[in-house]
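Design a sequence for this backbone.
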């Protein structure tokens, strides 16, 4: 019974969202999420710009130096370097995936 109630609430939420979105489009609002889209674009630009490259470079250099002086094991260094590369390129991957 509880599962049915949760499904009903979820379906009503989706229906309400679609209704509001369609009404906003019908009354002439070009994009009801314009400000959120603008902020998301700014964040993507910030995270995939020079700042992200600089932070990723510093992380990789610090991990490499710690590896050279035996302060970091090889598997941890590879995890840190791989994670830094994936995190720095995450915004570009998402931008590419959702590019319309």
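Sequence:
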């Amino acid at each position: 019974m509880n599962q049915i109630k949760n499904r009903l609430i979820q379906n009503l939420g989706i229906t309400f969202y679609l209704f509001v979105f369609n009404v906003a489009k019908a009354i002439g609002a070009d994009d009801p999420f314009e400000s959120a889209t603008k902020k998301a674009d700014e964040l993507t630009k910030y995270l995939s710009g020079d700042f992200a490259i600089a932070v990723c470079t510093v992380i990789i250099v610090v991990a490499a130096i710690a590896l050279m002086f035996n302060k970091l094991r090889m598997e941890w260094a590879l995890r840190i370097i791989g994670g830094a590369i994936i995190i720095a390129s995450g915004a570009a991957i998402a931008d590419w995936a959702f590019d319309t």
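Residues 33-100 form one domain.
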